[in-house]
Design a protein that fits this description.
The structure holds 2 protein chains of 2 kinds.
Chain A (H helix, E strand, L loop, with lengths): L14 H14 L29 E10 L4 E2 L2 E2 H14 L4 E12 L4 H17 L4 E9 L8 E10 L13 E4 L5 H11 L15 H8 L10 E5 L5 H13 L2 E5 L7 H10 L13 E4 L4 H10 L7 E7 L6 E4 L5 E3 L13
Parallel strand pairs in A: 4-5, 9-12
Antiparallel strand pairs in A: 1-6, 2-3, 4-6, 7-10, 7-11, 8-10, 9-11, 12-13
Chain B lengths: L12 H13 L4 E5 L2 H9 L2 H4 L4 E5 L4 H4 L2 H12 L3 E4 L13 H6 L4 E3 L3 H10 L5 E7 L4 H9 L6 E7 L2 H9 L6 E5 H7 L5 H5 L4 E4 L3 H17 L4 E3 L11 H10 E8 L3 E10 L8 H4 L1 H17 L7 H5 L31 H9 L8
Helix pairs in contact in B: 1-12, 2-17, 5-15, 8-13
The chains are: A alpha+beta, B alpha/beta.
Amino acid sequence: MKTKTISLEHGAGGEVMQALIGDIILKNFQNKSAGSIGLDSLDDGSTVRLEDLNSSSELVLTTDSHVITPAFFPDTNIGRLAVSGTVNDLTVMGAKPLALTCAVIVPEGFPIHEFEEIIKTMDQTAAEVGVPIITGDTKTVEKTALDSIILNTAGLGVTDSPVRDSGLKPGDKILVTGTIGDHGISLMAHREGFDFDTDLVSDSAPLWKLIEPILKLRTPEGEHVITAMKDPTRGGLANALNEMAAKSGAGILIEESLIPYKPAVNTACEMLGLDPLEVANEGKAIIGIKAGFEEEVLSILKKHPYGKDAALIGEVTAENKGEVILRNRFGGMRYVDVPSGDPIPRVC
Amino acid sequence: MENGKSLSKPAVSEFEKKLIERIKSSEVSLRIMHVCGTHERTIAKYGLRTVLPQNIEVISGPGCPVCVTPEEDINIAIALAKSGATVVTFGDMMRVPGSAESLLDAKSEGADLRMVYSIDDAVALAEKKPELEVVFFGIGFETTVPANAAALLKDTPENFSLFVSQKQTPPAINLLASDTNVDAFIAPGHVATIIGTKPFEPLAEKGFPVVVSGFEAGDVLLGINLLQMQIEKGISRVDNGYPRVVKPEGNTIALKMMNEVFESSGSEWRGIGNIEDSGLVLRKEFEEKDAVKKYEDLYSAPLAEIREKAEKKDKKRCICAAILTGKAKPSQCPNFRKECTPKNPSGPCMVSQEGMCYNWFKYSREGGARLA
């Protein structure tokens, strides 16, 4: 490309836009077809071939828009967030991701090399879970209308047995797939210039390969071992656990000493008066499982790099319906409230 | 990381567990009042009431600076803004209801009310915008007074003045000690950092065990245990349970600055009334920085309007006064968790992060998390 920044013409539907799509988008997306018509065809839509369906198969459709300032952060960018977010929404529904879409709204003046970097990152992230990006849309707007890039991804998945966030039953155990608060705190530290720990980076990651093996687990009676799942993004663990408790009509008791944190997250939260339970994650899942299967599920999760810090953090109770209680290291208990707003604005 | 072990938790749980055991081993019944919003936050956040035995009751006194600021001072701040001044204050203050409306309500009607993090931001605003008449609405206890004194001891621009609504803690505690059914006091560690431990000695002389405590869960537990030990020995004195920060003489530099700029006066406390020597006014040399005197002629008309509006307003049945003096718990208020929530507070105790009702709403609900 000759120009260095996005102009309004890049979204105008003409030759300049075709060049942007060809030189940046088509060139950098490797996996872009899920059927006979894919992204390269630049047709009005793309097709998804459905294989191995049975009478209980259902398609799952989800969509998510991503706005984040800045678009580049430690040590990735909005592209990874946009793919991971949608893959994870499908994953926690128990659905195998079949195809993604990619719609981009870019302000004029946005550097083209950054745009290309974002596209490359989307491709790499999607490749981790083998999901193609099969269709998309590009729009440009005046720089007075938008200060950074917006990405929307929709995702299509398939499942034989959807996992709900409302399926918890008293006695179930609660697991989390890794350290909490990494995304929110790394973003804030990066924005504000705090140097808590050079190793602290966003946890943004697509979780399908981590979760896929545990979806197959069944009890001797043939029931699903996984009873509920949710990804604790904005509002953190506090928001996700409250939603799960309320929708399931059960209580949740979590043990503070079992919750995995990175030291830098803990330090930052102490210093800034934030509650790590309320800080956003972008590569974690909360999983409800039937009691007695904790060790089996944890050993499977820990084999995957994204699950190496997975931990049992609590259990589901019959009492305190709809409430989340935290028990601390010396036995003190408090309610975990639904956060009133995000303590760190616009991180995903 | 092994499952079940945190990556970073300090190994202090044994310290806290031992203190809890020691507290439980004493059979003395004790009703303890703390007078600091941050202590209430520690107690609620760490669920301390859920681990203390039934013979130990910890109640909250008037320790939240936003909560004790009287409605009339909020009315005056609004009137100052409505008469054309730019009134700046701490964020927590914005949503506290006055007798007719909050600062935020007045802001939405067009009054110039702004949030700042410190008096220095307010002075900087006055310097940057000479066309504004900037008034800093100074609230809080001895912890925030030295910063205000320091700002005035430097040259501040002519368009900057201070609306002093600040309070001194010991006179209020002394008053409560003669009025409330309390056996012992946890004195505020932050305030004692400035004023030292001596101002709490009159309380001990009246027969109340006093401990100055810090703000970790272990600090508060240690404080409770030190009070039990005093009771068991039949003594009353001021123990310093926060020696890593608090010196008996306090911060003498800060005290000197306070004394240079301010002098004691009577002051109105929300829920309590006027307490002799519990307030501060600017000394004569700093009179020209007193916003109330400077703009007296301008704000009296809007203030009269606010008072008139307040007369017509339905009074909500908020029991703030009883809560601030330790005579009632938030769960005894008919509004608590119903019409009064942090999003829609009926009284100041639900607004501030240091407020009793806010902390109960967020962490304790009806008095503490319990497993059925």
